[in-house]
Each structure stands twice: as C-alpha cells, then as structure tokens.
Write a structure and sequence with these properties.
alpha+beta, about 10% strand
Length: about 110
C-alpha cells in the first residue's frame, strides 16, 4: 500500500514573511524550504532535495512558527548535538609564544 500524500503549504503568515524583510531572519536552509512550500509541495518531493534529518528539523521549525501548514512534524532529536563540556579544562588561557625570527630573513624595521 502506498503512503498517503502529505502536502505542506505556505500559510498567509508564511507568505508575508517570504515577501517581506523578515525573511532574512530565517536561515538559508529555512528560506529554501519555505520557498519550496509556496504554494504547496509533497513530502516525497521535499525528500528529493535534502537529507531527511535536516528536512524534518526545518519543517518542524516552520510548522511550529506557523509559516507552513500540513501534517504535524516530529520534533528533531537534539541528543546527537550534545558535546563534551569537559574537553577543555577551565583555567587561565596559555600565553602566546613570541615569534622567533627566521634565519636568513631580512630584519623588519620597527
């Protein structure tokens, strides 16, 4: 059995954002997805343009902001974005070393 067609369409609010200066507040990735949703696009076509994880994150953000309308999108899994805060010890920063002159290079005037 085939998957039902899931369409995502730009909302009037999304069209105002797309046509106004507010569009520059969105990342280039979100702008691209918003443009593709004007007037409407299926999920199958969207999947041909970008990786699934980034597409879902972009659709969730636009859907949550009310800029696109369509079936609900799952929130992205941010657990993969965690980093190890212990990678750099907390303390004074090391001092920069003084540059040594290169042998045979002409001396620079100060």
């Amino acid at each position: 059995m085939t998957e039902p067609t899931r369409l995502y369409a730009i909302t009037p609010k999304g069209r105002q954002v797309l046509r106004g200066p507010t569009v520059w507040c969105l990342t280039a990735h979100l702008r691209d997805v918003l443009v593709l949703c004007d007037p409407a696009i299926s999920m199958a076509h969207l999947r041909q343009t970008m990786p699934r994880e980034s597409l879902n994150a972009a659709l969730f953000a636009l859907w949550d902001l009310g800029l696109v309308d369509g079936p609900p999108v799952e929130a992205p899994d941010h657990s993969q974005w965690e980093f190890d805060a212990r990678s750099r010890p907390i303390g004074p920063l090391p001092r920069a070393r003084k540059a040594r002159p290169v042998e045979g290079a002409p001396a620079r005037a100060a």
